[in-house]
Amino acid sequence: MLNIVLIEPEIPNNTGNIGRLCVGTESRLHLVHPFGFIINDKNLKRSGLDYWVHLDVTEYQNVAEWKAKISDKSRVFLMSSNANVSIYDTKFQDGDWLVFGKESVGLSQEVLAQFENHLTIPMSNLIRSFNIANSVAFVVGEAKRQINLII
């Protein structure tokens, strides 16, 4: 099972879509406060549809609380449009932590400095980044493809 981490998500629709993706891929969702919305926001529930009740989700008050739950920090992968290593050049494993930042600014330098594995999704130079829900889908899809090939 993959662990999908959203650090300070801002847009409820994106978080709802990612929650739905987690249910569909049997991944766990980890949400790190503060949020840009209330967790019972109707848009969050609408995006997650009726799947939200099946979601394996944990909330943390801050990055330190979330980080304390990780037993193997070498299996934490932070997504950044500024990283040099592609998700396609990474060997994912069951149980990996895939970390995504705020929609508006990504992961802070403070969070990036706490882990070594920084990855990027290759994209055209015509854009700065993908929508976070699309980014999570790219990375989860690639990780699940690799893991399923191993099994």
Describe the 3D structure.
The chain is α/β, with parallel strands linked by helices. The protein has 5 helices and 7 strands, in the order βαβαβαβββαβα. It has helices at residues 12-25, 42-48, 63-67, 109-112, 132-150; strands at 3-7, 28-32, 57-60, 76-79, 85-86, 97-100, 117-120. A 7-stranded parallel beta sheet has the order 3-2-1-6-4-7-5. The longest helix is centred in the C-terminal third of the chain and has 19 residues, at 132-150. The chain starts with a strand and ends with a helix.
Structure in a nutshell:
The chain has 151 residues and is an alpha/beta fold. The chain has helices at residues 12-25, 42-48, 63-67, 109-112, 132-150, and strands at residues 3-7, 28-32, 57-60, 76-79, 85-86, 97-100, 117-120. It has 5 helices and 7 strands.
